[in-house]
Amino acid sequence: MRVAVLGALALLLSPAVQAVEGGGPMAVSPAVIGSAAAGCIAGAVALPPEGTGYQVLRLSRKRNFGHPDTVHVVESLARTAAAEGLGLLLVGDMSQPRGGPMPFGHGSHQSGIDVDIWFRLPEQGLAEPEREAPQPVSMVAGERVTAAWTPAQLRLLELAARAPEVDRIFVNPAIKREVCRSGGADRQWLAKLRPWWGHDEHFHVRLSCPPGSEACEAQRPVPDGDGCGFELASWFAKGPVAIPTAKPHHQTKPLPLACLQLLKHRP
Ligand SMILES: [Zn+2]
């Protein structure tokens, strides 16, 4: 691990990298450094603002960057969703051009392997100005899903969870419980759905450490089984599942040294 971080640092300090100007993505081979909650990314690529089956929201935030695998997962999910007639994917935040902590909105999304995708599946893309200030649609009321939840959302989650690059997906506990109820006989993909606060109007996809990213810190593997038993029940034992509004995030975990170097020169 230590050797890997030093290796990444050496890469960042090479003359070719120093020649890169401004705060854009680094023109080097992609490397995820650190974790989603304390990390950054070299060699990120941009998800184009729109493509087959999807539209990126709030482009002014410049958070449509990620590891090429993340871009691939979104594009391929969107293509399949379009082919199956599920509706258009609205893509929320990914990461900043070099990752790192965001000034508002998330504690994670720092290392180019996270992407928020809305449950709302419109038939066509949002026009300005709504695209810049879109209206989320919650799928949850109290402890249950609402009438907004349809087989299209269920299928979309299944497609995302079955992508081999995807490590886990955060959803509201009420959504996980509904998927447990209606998810069918093949339960393996359910393990990747992790109950978490909020996540009632979007789901949050996190990839595993991509191959070749030696300085990427892997998360603990998701527990065995479909996750529909005791762990899920414990969320409801706490009372109605809270859907908090976004609160300011303060970076608590220190960033890897390689990230401090990488992020130093961004605007
Ligand atoms: Zn997210």
Q: What do these coordinates show?
A:
The protein has 267 residues and is of the alpha+beta class. It has a single domain, classed as Muramoyl-pentapeptide Carboxypeptidase, domain 2 (2-Layer Sandwich). The chain is 26% helix and 17% strand. The protein contains 7 helices and 13 strands. The strands form 5 sheets. Strands 8-13-11-12 form a 4-stranded mixed beta sheet. It has a 3-stranded mixed beta sheet with strand order 4-5-7. Helix 1 (2-12) packs parallel to helix 7 (257-264). It is globular, with a radius of gyration of 18 Å. The two termini are 29 Å apart. Mean pLDDT is 88; it is low at 1-6 and 10-22. Zinc ion (ZN) binds at residues 106, 109, 114, 116, 204.
Give a quick precis of the structure.
By secondary structure, this protein is of the alpha+beta class. Helix content is 26%, strand content 17%. A 4-stranded mixed beta sheet has the order 8-13-11-12. A 3-stranded mixed beta sheet has the order 4-5-7.
Tags for this model:
alpha+beta; Muramoyl-pentapeptide Carboxypeptidase, domain 2; 3-stranded mixed sheet; binds zinc ion
Question: Which ligands, by name, code or SMILES, are bound?
Answer: zinc ion
Q: Which strand order do you get reading across the main beta sheet? A: 8-13-11-12
Strand content: 15-25%
Helix residue percentage: 25-40%
Instruction: Provide the low-confidence segments as ranges.
Output: 1-6, 10-22
Number of domains: 1
Write down the Rg: 18 Å
Distance between the termini: 29 Å
Query: Which shape, going by the Cα principal axes?
Result: globular
